[in-house]
Amino acid sequence: MSQARSLIHDQWSSRLAFIMAAVGSAVGLGNVWKFPYITGENGGGAFVLVYLVCIALIGVPIMMAEILIGRRGRQSPINTMRTLAAQEGAHPAWGWLGWMGVIAGFLILSYYSVIAGWSLAYVLNAASGAFNGADSAAIAALFDNLLKSPAALLFWHTLFMLMTVGVVARGVRSGLEQAVTVMMPALFILLVILVLYAFYEGDFVRGADFLLRPDFGKVFQHCELLPSGEKSCRITGEPILIALGHAFFTLSLGMGAIMVYGSYMPATASIAGAALVIVVADTIAALLAGLAIFPIVFANGLEPASGPGLIFQTLPIAFGAMPGGQLFGTLFFILLVFAAWTSAISLIEPAVAWLVENRGLSRLTATASIGVLAWLLGIGTVLSFNLWSGESCQLFGKTWFELVDYLTSNIMLPLGGLCIAIFAGWAMARASSRDELQLGDGLRYRSWRFVIRYVSPALVLLVFLNAIGLL
Ligand code: PFF
Ligand code: NA
């Protein structure tokens, strides 16, 4: 069986290749674009602390669970869940978990591609010297003009979707595996350079203080910048749900991306070690991005709660003023595109693997079909920043983009993660998870099993109940 399957899909060439691909999936727009702006909207350090707790208590154990389920099932998430449910004598309805993941990945991809398109546009801006000597007002205008133009947004969205489809259609192993190995370290180096810039030129003390010092009065504070430029804040349980949702989003958990990557993993590699490396790399990337951005925000009198435009309105100020900024800026946005690219391919892979397995489609046809659907849906996000930004086009006070983001990050991923924890902790036999994790039967395995059975599910449930107002 497993041999026949490895003919359908490639396998990673080594444990390192798996780690690189999974880090490529994890480190993306979530770290550099989303983490800073949601931290800015949700009160800073207190939010970061809740996020870090979610990463440690939920992220690591569920990362291990997803990898082990994937490697044991060795197929797309849908078929993996079906196969394992049958093997473990669990209800066939577990197959639906795979479906929810495929749908979540496709919804996320639809807006991810639009935002990655902004980064593509900024490669051009940086390379053409558009930031040189520009003040924060000029930088803000540059961003506003991009958002105001549906045609421009659509163009970059289309280009990015084509790039994603192009790579996935060829199979993940040939191109990506190697490219990721070079580009990810380069992205980290550039983030460190930007942190150094922020240290010398920004308001580093205020920025670091905002990011790292928890002000518990703000755990429940959510702020937004109104179109009028006014800032509106309210007290709500939402920041905690957003922190939980972001822990899943940033680690690519809860939708089968890591599961499908795990299914291509060599049988002997250590799952726990890999999970730890992935989580640590992702967290460092997010914190570095925060340390690069907030000092520039405060030094230029910008508003941390500016929303999705935050990095596009701050980092160019740094690039415009620093020596060699044109080169560094160009490089930075190229790497950001690359980070987004290596994540986007993992958003599409679960669906593609399923179409190849069950519908007998070629990878090219499978990838192109999903790509076209996600592209169409992405038009809703394109319009959310211009023609559909008005209140008459909103639902529950959210634009299309905000709705898709909220539904996927804050509901579908945590729900998917909860089910994965329940499956790995309760539906799977102890012997199955123990053999797959290869941790022996000692303290390490026992702690993982305890956390995945009780702690992670309880925390996710608590946050949910709190969010819908039952707690
Ligand atoms: N982890 C990616 C990021 O932080 O940008 C986003 C992502 C990729 C989420 C793949 C989910 C996923 F399956
Ligand atoms: Na991430």
Describe the model.
There is one protein chain. This protein has 471 residues and is mostly helical. It has one domain: Up-down Bundle (Amino acid/polyamine transporter I), CATH 1.20.1740. Helices cover 76% and strands 2% of the residues. The chain is built from 19 helices and two strands. A two-stranded antiparallel sheet has the order 1-2. The radius of gyration is 21 Å and the shape is globular. The N and C termini lie far apart (47 Å). Bound molecules: 4-fluoro-L-phenylalanine (PFF) and sodium ion (NA). Sodium ion (NA) binds next to helix 3. Sodium ion binds next to helix 3. It comes from Caldichromatium japonicum. It holds the Pfam family SNF. Belongs to the sodium:neurotransmitter symporter (SNF) (TC 2.A.22) family.
Using brief descriptors, characterize the structure shown.
19 helices, binds sodium ion, disordered N terminus, binds 4-fluoro-L-phenylalanine, transmembrane helix, SNS_sf, 2% strand, 471 residues, YocR/YhdH-like, transmembrane, 76% helix, globular, 2 strands, Amino acid/polyamine transporter I, mainly alpha
